[in-house]
Design brief:
The complex is a heterodimer of chains A (441) and B (272). With 441 residues, chain A is α+β, with helices and mostly antiparallel strands. Chain A has three domains: 221 residues, no CATH class; 144 residues, Immunoglobulin-like (Sandwich), CATH 2.60.40; 28 residues. Chain A is built from six helices and 26 strands. The longest helix of chain A has 48 residues. Chain A is flat, with a radius of gyration of 33 Å. Classes of the chains: A alpha+beta (441), B mainly alpha (272). Chains A and B meet through β15, β16, β17, β26 and α5 of A and α2, β1, α5 and α8 of B. Chain A: Keywords: Coiled coil, Membrane, Signal, Transmembrane, Transmembrane helix.
């Protein structure tokens, strides 16, 4: 009995320790590279743990590479290493050396930088400013924020006064009505103050890091400490790459029947196949084509990708343009960019409809769900090829590689595809029979 | 001059023999039937209010057609070389003015011309498909068809090289089917694995994909089907330089393997 108790106790201790070991992944202090890399359109933040021996960056752009000592642990659910920068984020004193073919080609010192978001923190575009420009940008943001805060203070004061005036107004109305006064009362109605516009851009806090801006190629990086030695574990390969194709226009297409599941028509050779009962909303973008593996690794060195595949990265939305819908050389419709509102259909059935964003919706306080170029493919359209093309508003010139084909298919005739396959058999049989007949005669 | 005349005679004999045999047309029919199946599924996959964004939908059927036709031609040539060797016809021919060069170049030209006739059928078939369904007979498809001539040349020269190495009909067919089948299997399997996103693949499958990637890279300059894929890619990319470069690679590949075939046959002799 006693031995069984001891066995159970030991088993319990063993299992609980094993469970704890499983539940808490091992945490290690590690030298990592914290990265702020330009991804073609904006800056993405990631880090390269010791498990990754290569860092990927886009050529001729400013990128921040920062060696840091931090806590790293493996998270089995996502199969990746996580960094605990909030627990430990220690800078490594020294210089960053860049090598090519075994020779040091540059020794970098840390520089001050900020990230500038021209349309607010969630804007799709980000610009990096360095040194004095970084200070100036941050100063501009601070000044704008101070002005906003001052205006906000004034607004709160005005609101307080407005509420007081409003109370006085109601009090006056009540008093004069109780006094038996009828008809319109000539009392001025207090005007509600409008809140100040929030600062429409954002600039990150100034930080320091090694700014890497290199032409395409294969390099190596390492940290040389102040005592002249190389920091152990700081050597990494650096792949600096560029786009394969650039300067074209890609489209994001919102199908009217499923607006949440958008399609992309990025490659100029891609064709939009439809049957002819569609409402399509087109959003043009400038774009660049990158190697999928390189670009995925750039966004996060722990990502994997396919070196054989290429991906289009949308750089900037094209807003100041019109869309031409045509057939051959003939322009059937000129489409302008317009706001749209997605309206949930009331009732038990699930669904929605996309409606034009009008004054009524605006008055009711609704904001447009998206802005786009709408093209309707009605069933009355002949089943042939159509084109869309984006032209710049300022000079009415077509944007390069913006033309796409919309092909309306004749689905009803698909059943004749199999009989077509018999064509060579019929020809072959004819030739063989004719030859035999000729030989026999 | 004499070699050229011999080559022409051998080419004419083999070419007409194949052109008058039903097997050639059956092979084209099979390839078109598979293409029809693919295209029917493509059309059926587009719902009434849906759209489907894709590259030229005829490229994949063209690829399948080329694979089937070139496999047929290669096996046919392989069998005919082995048969002539086994039956002693080759020995008799070589006592005359026939040389390994004229014999193999004759076979090569025959296969290439049969491939071109098959491409003519393919162009007609795709044109009719386009008329029926508006799937699109584009300039890109014309370029792909022109590129296909050079890619058939790759498959044929590789097939002749394998046939020159083997002796008997059975071993020749087995070797051709095994090698070309392995090339195709690796390419299809790798492309299928490439189609999956990382999240949808288990860890062992990720390792398999990585291993396949190395194997694929290893065979990418040997497998004639890899030239086919690269050639069709250059059409999609609309890059004239890449297009011409791929034609150049295909010609170089064909000449290297034809040279090797002639060399092997000269060294090995004509006896089974």
């Amino acid at each position: 009995m006693k031995s069984r108790l001891v066995f159970l106790l030991l088993l319990g201790v063993f299992l609980s320790s094993g469970w704890t070991a499983l539940a808490q992944p091992p945490v290690r202090e590690q030298l990592v590279y914290s990265l702020t890399s330009f991804n073609g359109s904006t800056y993405s933040k990631s880090f390269a743990p010791q498990s990754e021996d290569t860092i990927y960056l886009i050529a001729n752009t400013n990128n921040i590479v920062n060696p840091r000592k931090t806590i790293v642990y493996y998270w089995p659910i996502t199969r990746r290493y996580m960094a605990g920068f909030s627990t430990l984020n220690e800078a490594v004193p020294g210089k960053l050396e860049i090598l090519q073919g075994g020779k040091v080609i540059a020794t970098l010192e840390e520089q001050k930088y900020v990230l500038y978001y021209p349309e607010g923190y969630f804007s799709e575009k980000t610009i990096m400013y360095l040194n004095e420009e970084a200070d100036a940008a941050h100063e501009r943001y601070k000044k704008a924020m101070d002005e906003f805060n001052a205006k906000l203070k004034e607004y709160y004061e005005a609101m307080r006064k407005y509420r007081e005036d409003l109370n006085k107004f109601f009090e006056e109305v009540r008093r004069r009505r109780e006094a038996g006064e009828t008809g319109p009362l000539d009392i001025p109605i207090p005007k509600e103050p409008s809140p100040p516009e929030f600062v429409n851009f954002y600039v990150s806090e100034p930080a320091t890091g090694f700014v890497v801006n290199l032409p395409p190629g294969h390099y190596e990086i390492r940290v040389r400490l102040e005592d002249g030695t190389i920091l152990e574990g700081s050597e990494k390969k650096l792949v600096v790459f560029t786009s394969r194709r650039k300067g074209g226009i890609g489209y994001e297409i919102i199908p009217g029947n499923r607006w949440t599941k958008r399609e992309n028509c990025d490659d100029p050779s891609w064709i939009i196949h439809a049957v002819g009962k569609n409402e399509l909303y087109f959003n043009p973008f400038t774009q660049e084509e990158y190697n999928e593996l390189y670009h995925n690794k750039l966004q996060d060195p722990q990502n994997i990708g396919r070196i054989e595949r290429w991906k289009w990265v949308h750089v900037d939305p094209v807003k100041d343009a019109t869309l031409l819908f045509g057939r051959g050389k003939e322009v059937l419709k000129t489409v302008t960019r317009a706001p749209y509102f997605v309206k949930q259909i009331p009732g038990p059935e699930l669904g929605y409809e996309i409606v034009d964003y009008d004054e009524d919706l605006k008055k009711r306080g609704y904001k447009p769900t998206f802005e786009s170029y709408k093209v309707i493919l009605g069933p009355e359209l002949p089943k042939v090829d159509y084109t869309i093309q984006t032209v710049a508003s300022e000079n009415q010139m077509p944007l390069p590689k913006s033309e796409r084909t919309i092909r309306l298919l004749r689905k009803a005739y698909s059943m004749y595809l199999y009989p077509l396959a018999f064509l060579p058999l019929a020809v072959g049989a004819g030739i063989v029979i004719a030859r035999r007949a000729r030989i026999e005669t | 001059m004499r070699t050229f005349r011999v080559m022409k005679t051998l080419f004419r004999r083999d070419f007409l023999y194949s052109l008058y045999s039903l097997g050639y047309y059956v092979a084209i029919f099979v390839s078109f039937f598979v293409s029809s199946f693919i295209l029917k599924n493509f059309l059926d996959s587009i719902g009434e209010e849906d759209i489907l964004v894709s590259a030229y939908p005829l490229n994949y059927p063209l690829y399948i057609t080329l694979v089937i036709i070139s496999l047929y031609l290669v096996i046919l040539s392989g069998v005919s070389i082995s048969r002539e060797r086994e039956q002693g016809t080759l020995e008799v021919l070589f006592y005359g003015p026939v040389t390994p060069g004229s014999f193999l170049w004759g076979k090569y030209l025959k296969d290439l011309c049969l491939g071109m006739v098959a491409l003519g059928f393919t162009a007609l078939y795709f044109y009719l498909v386009s008329v029926l369904t508006n799937i699109g007979f584009t300039m890109g498809l014309v370029k792909a068809l022109i590129m296909s001539i050079f890619l058939i040349s790759c498959v044929v020269s590789f097939g002749l090289f394998v046939s020159s190495l083997t002796g008997r009909i059975r071993s020749s067919v087995l070797a051709l089917v095994a090698i070309l089948g392995a090339f195709l299997a690796i390419q299809f399997a790798y492309n299928a694995l490439l189609g999956f996103e990382k999240e949808s693949l288990s860890v062992p499958m990720l390792y398999v994909r990585q291993a396949m990637s190395y194997v694929f890279r290893g065979i990418s300059w040997i497998s004639p089907f890899a030239y086919l894929s690269r050639g069709l890619d250059s059409v999609v990319l609309e890059n004239p330089l890449l297009y011409l470069a791929n034609i150049g690679y295909a010609l170089l590949y064909s000449f290297i393997f034809m040279f090797l075939s002639v060399y092997v046959m000269s060294k090995k002799g004509v006896k089974a």
